[in-house]
Amino acid sequence: MIAPPERMPERDAAILGMLPHVAFDGWSKRALRAGVLDAGMPADEAEILFPLGAVDMIETFCDLADRRMEEAAAGLPQTRLTARVRAIIALRLQQNRPYKEAIRRGLAVLALPQNAMAAAGCTARTVDAIWHAAGDRSADFSWYTKRAILAAVYSATVLYWLRDTSEDNAETLAFLDRRLAGVGRIGRMRGRVDALLARIPRPSRLRMGDTG
């Protein structure tokens, strides 16, 4: 797992305080200073808490959202894995609904070429948190394939969600269901192919000099 950004209660408080300001001022020092003040801390704490600037703030927000999601997911009913993954993503979208504009602006920052590694790290940590919250404990090669597939599904779902104006994210959840159904069909097809290949006898190795 990719290491998360530095975790401190003061950093979390500053991020939560600045989120309402990000919608107007972006992931900027101005929004951060306002957030620090709203959190009840001295304004000069802003420079100390996030010396690496906007990307550091965005990564901290993503990590905080991951932790809040995992904590809330503990109260979800135990269901089959795919249904639980769907419920966890729905939970995350609902938690982040008040911060949609801040997330839109954050994605614009992460889309810059120089921030590609930070963007990939945020996605990887979030996907890993979703699988972990869902109860997946795989340690074989499927660990990588599951996360790669979910990264594509989750990223597409977030982009759809940013444009969604339906009540309770209804259209986004329908989109997510279609994506998960497509992944399920691929998985079933792969399973049938693997089963078919397993029934085909493997040809014995020709002996040296045996040309028929």
Topology:
Layout (H helix, E strand, L loop, with lengths): L8 H17 L3 H10 L6 H5 L4 H20 L7 H16 L3 H11 L5 H19 L7 H22 L6 H30 L13
How would you describe this structure to a colleague?
- It contains nine helices and no strands.
- It is mostly helical.
- The chain has a domain at 54-198.
- The longest helix has 30 residues, at 170-199.
- The protein is globular.
Q: Radius of gyration over alpha carbons?
A: 22 Å
Q: Tell me roughly what share of residues is in helical segments.
A: over 70%
Strand composition percent: under 5%
- How many DSSP H or I helices? 9
Q: Regions with pLDDT < 50 over 5+ consecutive residues?
A: 189-198, 202-212
User: What gap, in angstroms, lies between the N and C termini?
Assistant: 54 Å
Q: Give the biggest sheet.
A: none
Write the element-wise H/E pattern from the N-terminal end onward. Answer: HHHHHHHHH
Structural class: mainly alpha
What is the arithmetic mean of pLDDT? 86
The shape, in one word, is globular
Number of strands: 0
